[in-house]
Amino acid sequence: MRLPSRAACSVLCLVLVPAFLVLAQQPRRTLRAVTIDDYFQIRAVSDPDLSPDGRFVTYTVESHLLKDDKNEDRIWMVPTAGGEAVPLTAAGASSSHARWSRDGRSIAFLSARDEGKTQVWVLPRWAGEAERLTDTPQDVEDFAWSPDNRHLVLVLRDPSAEDLETAKARKGRAAVSQEKRKVQKPWVIDRLQFKTDEIGYLDRRRTHLYVFDLAAKTLRQITTGDFDDSEPAWSPDGWSIAFSSNRSQPDPDATYDNNIWVVRADTQEKEAHLTQITTNPGADTAPSWSPDAKWITYVTQLDPHLFDYATRHVAFSPARGGSARVLTLKLDRNADEPHFSSDGKIFFIADDDGALQLYTVDTTTAAITFGDGQRGERPPIGGRLTVNGYSIGNGSTGNIAAQISTLDHPDEIFSVIGGKLTQITHMNDALMNQLKLSQGEYVHFKSKDGTTVAGYLYKPLDYVAGRRYPTILRPHGGPVWSYYAEFDHLPQLYAANGYVVLFPNPRGSSGYGQKFAQAIWAEWGNKDFQDDMAMVDYAIEQGIADPAKLAVGGWSYGGISTDFIIAQTNRFKAAISGAGSAFFASSYGHDEYQRDYETELGHPWENKAVWEKVSPFYRVSNIATPTLFMGGDSDWNVPILGSEQMYQALKRLGRATELVVYPGEFHEFKAPSHIKDRLERYLAWYNHYVKGDSAPARPVSAAQSGE
């Protein structure tokens, strides 16, 4: 239901945007409409990491291999000043999360090779083969270099009995009995939070921190207990490791009280002495050290009662514990990825007005540097973009590497040297130069109660003014999330097939302040419904949308919104509800959100009226819209149960409906064949019920066809 929020950059935007827009406006060569298969030609560029000397950037490139029905990550490197990009890892085995050693001589990364567990591997900077550093029974989930380059801190989940048996067999060069593999033991559950997507049922195995000695190849556990520890950050002096953990008592599963802690890196104790840095009752995450090791900056949420609806702020505290200082209260925007610069300021990414931008904040004055020109500090710069990640390296060069996308181009890596922005990767240029795109427009409109709402509007290719077109409303997931100024294949695909596409950011969305986000608290499907409808009305009033040919559909909370919408109005000719839910009392204890439900709605056996008010299932008899329901059978975020219930009800009522369940898929689909099948069904359903084409196609999957 909820999607992770992202952030971006404003100091970057101030000096970078003009150069970027020149690149974005370069003429294209051969132009054609976007197709379904183009999704699998886009290479997802992410995770830039700047070398300590600021001269090179490593990054990850994900490819969607439709023929092999899998995804593959490779690590690349490019000079910061621009030049030839080179792959550092070979095809055939996914590798990701590349991190430079502090001396810049080596690059460590994560990879699961030889069908084994994910381990840390290392490459020499200039030449040579990758060498596996770690050999743990379980997957390595994260790691960080020590300042002296002699150690790594690892994040490991306690190994299962199967992990230990497999590791023992591997070291003994013996195979694990196939008969033993077939026998699955029962899950024994005794935790309050007992389920999560992509893991499944949770037992008492927890994630903890370990220090790995590169020379001795030894591993030493430095945190323990019935808690999960993550996000390790090594202090610049090498003495300590900061991390985030919910160690609240008596039960960490019952609260949002995540805090920042520090542990000695050289501890030999089984029960290491920990220093608690933050005491805020909300979530404190993403720790990062100041260059002098005296301070730790982090992200804090001050109101645990609002959980995801609460604004995430940048704060910092003394590294030995003490009073915290929150720096971004006046900004009132979600902040992420704070990092100290060499001059003592803190960079961070903020979610602001349908874009992700980079900001800096002064730790002495709390003055925030903006780059959007909307608050009077800087002249307007124009253009919209999304910064999905950045790296400022470890040195004092002032160079920055950033992962940036715009409405007409997928993510690429850019560098900032001397205040000049330069695109230094070109993974998607050749494809994008072939495509004719709909130029997404960021529009504002008034909702029913007069509230100003914004969203992105895409017109069909070859749009003719004065002509009305079939229109698809696409509510977003979250609900605390937003549509951003970044490339998205789906609206381009719809626009290429003759549709107007509406991407609203209704109340509940991030990027417009905490009050805007919490406006739907315990009242889902009311104000956000009004705002979604307001964008439809806006498109009709502008003479763009055909009121007789409207469709709606979304995924996650977007699927939930779709259920709300079709239960309140029959103005839509077709709907697609992906990974949605409508009967929330039945989701309690079945999905992963029990704590959120209790915080926002109370217990279902005590607050029945509230639960029923927010559940569109009780209005199902009002639905006349032909609706396609779909989801993954392994999704514990929004389980397929919700789609099954809505499908069953509409089928019983004799409505036009269909249910598609994808085997082995979590909330976020992985298999390229399933993603292609889903896109084909999207178009077939809308084309049939909105445009009046032939009956919806039923694509045959590779598994069904025997390919």
TrEMBL record:
It comes from the Bacteria. GO terms for molecular function: serine-type endopeptidase activity. InterPro entries: 6-blade_b-propeller_TolB-like, AB_hydrolase_fold, Peptidase_S9_cat, WD40. One of its GO terms (biological process) is proteolysis. Residues 1-24 form the signal peptide. SUPFAM superfamilies: alpha/beta-Hydrolases (SSF53474), Tricorn protease N-terminal domain (SSF69304). The keyword Lyase does not apply. The keyword Nucleotide-binding does not apply. Pfam families: PD40, Peptidase_S9. Residues 486-691 form the Peptidase S9 prolyl oligopeptidase catalytic domain. Keywords: Hydrolase, Protease, Serine protease, Signal. PANTHER family: DIPEPTIDYL PEPTIDASE FAMILY MEMBER 6 (PTHR42776:SF27), SERINE PEPTIDASE S9 FAMILY MEMBER (PTHR42776). This is S9 family peptidase. It comes from Candidatus Acidiferrum panamense.
